[in-house]
Amino acid sequence: MTLSIQSLATIAIELQSGLTQGDRFQRLINSLRRLLRCDASALLRFEGQQFRPLAIDGLAQDVLGRRFALDAHPRLEAIARAGDVVRFPADSDLPDPYDGLIPGYDQLKVHACIGLPLFAEQDLIGALTFDSLDPLQFDRFSDEELRLISALAAGALTTALLVEALEGQALSPLVSPGGSSPRENDEIIGLSPVMQQLKQEISIVAGSELNVLITGDTGVGKELVVRAIHQGSARAANPLVYLNCAALPESVAESELFGHVKGAFTGAIQHRAGKFEMADNGTLFLDEIGELSLSLQAKLLRVIQYGDLQRVGDDRVKRVNVRILAATNRNLKQAAIDGVFRLDLYHRLSVFPLFVPPLSERVSDIALLAGYFCERCRIKLGLMQLMLSAEALFVLEHYPWPGNIRELEHAIYRAAILARAEQNSSELQLLPAHFSIKSGSLPIGSSDEALPETAIEADLATMTQHFQRSVIQKTLAQCEMNWAATARKLNLDSGNLHRLAKRLNIK
């Protein structure tokens, strides 16, 4: 027996030490890598037909953010379908998901790989993977020894999942077991302290019936927080209805919220339910809530307070049971003090306020998010591998990201397209040159350009369009790409601004 009883006992003792689950998993992976003398090891959790890394050793940090779907990774699919140890030959035709993701060996293929599926009774809950650049590295270990390792890891993971389930029941006792499963790409990525705190707060409030006000800069992922709250609530099996308040023209806003009856106004050719009725017994997500007019705020307040509404043009009162989740990038408390937002509505909405931190306050999550977007981009572009160089990651971690996660996602996709055109390969590496970002800059063209001399000879309409385009772009940059804030600053209706931007080819 190559593995000593003492080494296995040491691992078992470490798994029972008084550490957090994450620390236990990391210690397990570190110990197993040393024990098997391999180049990389990973503990993966299986959920939703994909593997999610829980702990890694010897792999690039962005691997923790990647999600390995079975249909996109045949080697992991083989591990998932196996009921025992899986050994892949050095010349296997199945691509290794970690090729190019071992630091210092970006251009080398993994030569030896073994996978250990982890089961709780008959259910697949995870997997252990070990990779080596030496094709003979794992020949010295018998299947029986590897099964012992698998049993230890499966026991630790099973315990962690049971603890997680019990904590979830304690925090969210009203969650319906028949609730719908989360949509693809709804996961909140992040292991930084501020994100751990946010996830904890989401778990606490999700099972309640409290209204929640979610604040944060543009692009931080407020909608993901909304979906997480809805999925963790007793209303998960019922609709989650979305309404962008910033895109509501004043003339139709009331109808969108409360509905209308036939003949209520010109164009009302049939009865129509509003968002509140659509969300009955479910959740209504009011995005950019700060953009509603004061008159609509008063009507909204009554529905929230008493649960009754009237369609436009109808005298009958309808009762609804709706939970309100509102989001904004504005300081509503200050807006209430300034008189542009109702203070009583603010208090009704902010029963349990949540703040989503900007990316600049969670720099340690950038590698995870970059890995997550790299994997999604790899699948979308049909690539064998999409890697992020250490130099590129350094650039990403030292950029302020005024557009937050949305800007990071777009930067990754743009870089991948540039790399594909430049490298002409199915295995791409993203380099700093592929990211056109500089510290303190925004990814838009300069809006401070002077009117070109050639424009003086043009007609007045052309010069006017140029001036409008320049002013809108400059204001948009100052407002950190927030169209609603830009409309306020320019004293324009939000809908009119969007239409003007399209006409000027800004959007």
Describe the protein.
This protein is α/β, with parallel strands linked by helices. The chain has four domains: 165 residues, GAF domain (Beta-Lactamase, 2-Layer Sandwich), CATH 3.30.450; 163 residues, 3-Layer(aba) Sandwich (Rossmann fold); 76 residues, Helicase, Ruva Protein, domain 3 (Orthogonal Bundle); 51 residues. 42% of the residues lie in helices and 16% in strands. The protein has 18 helices and 17 strands. A six-stranded antiparallel beta sheet has the order 3-2-1-6-5-4, with helices on both faces. A hairpin with an 8-residue loop joins strand 12 and strand 13. Helix 1 packs antiparallel against helix 2, helix 1 runs parallel beside helix 4 and helix 16 packs across helix 17. The longest helix has 29 residues. It is globular. The N and C termini lie far apart (66 Å). About 6% of the residues have low confidence.
